[in-house]
Amino acid sequence: MDPPPPLHMAMFPWFAMGHLTPYLHLSNKFAIRGHKISFFIPKNTINKLQHLNLHPNLITFVPITVPHVNGLPHDAETTSDVPFSLVPLIATAMDQTEKDIEPLLKKIKPQIVFFDFQYWLPNLTKNLGIKSLQYIILSPISTAYLGCLQKLSQGRDLTEVDLMKPPSGFPDSCIKFHSHELRFLASTTKIKRGRDEVEHLPSLRTVIPPPASCTSRLCCHRRWVEV
Predict the structure, then answer these.
(1) By C-alpha distance, which of 170, 187, 166 is closest to 221?
(2) Which of 99, 157, 199, 207 gives 20 to 30 Å between its CA and that of 190?
């Protein structure tokens, strides 16, 4: 039997070096298997990752112009270009790329798009007849821990006390935070991000869930945890 033909994939990570880099590592893995990848990336950030593209014959960087948002420095493209307080503006700028992403997808015609925090992307790809897959680079245990707590908080800001104790049904003693980590995580829940002022930073995995996936299940210490 002949092997299946290679796929054409698109990668659309969150505009942060800690997300762009692992997405490119994943792209290299797919390229080893002969798949073609179109990698969406802020245009001035390409040079920072060019050396990590091990298969330039199969991985093509697709430059994205990051829209200007009031309060955001004109040369800012990723979270490494701004202080933490301005990260929500990077999220807003990323949301505003939607109108540019649609014609790009129509042009390159990938079969599947791997996306990060772009909650609007599944509807877009569905309308274009393209599959989408949310690929989260955070560890499953962290995602499940914080996701469960956010769900149980019912919209109120999380406190250090909330974060200290694992949620009901979560494996005991699998995560232990230091006091400075608790203070940081609690402070991030008070920041607003993105279009429609969706509360909380995407780093806490509280993006608007894609259609038909209001919950997700993650394997933690061989147990499934629903978030």
Answers:
(1) 170
(2) 99
Q: Which amino acids are annotated catalytic?
A: 19, 116
**Which residues in 115-124 are b (16+ Cβ under 10 Å) and which e?**
bbbbbbbbeb
The pLDDT tens digits of the residues spanning 176-207 come to 677 777 676 666 555 444 444 334 333 333 33
Domain boundaries defined on the chain: 8-134, 140-226
Model pTM greater than 0.85?
A: no
Which residues are paired to 41 by β-bridges?
63
143-178 residue pLDDT tens? 677 667 666 666 666 676 777 777 776 766 666 677
42 strand-pairing partners: 64
Q: CATH classification of 8-134, choosing from 3.40.50.2000, 3.90.1530.10, 3.30.750.200, 1.10.2020.10? A: 3.40.50.2000
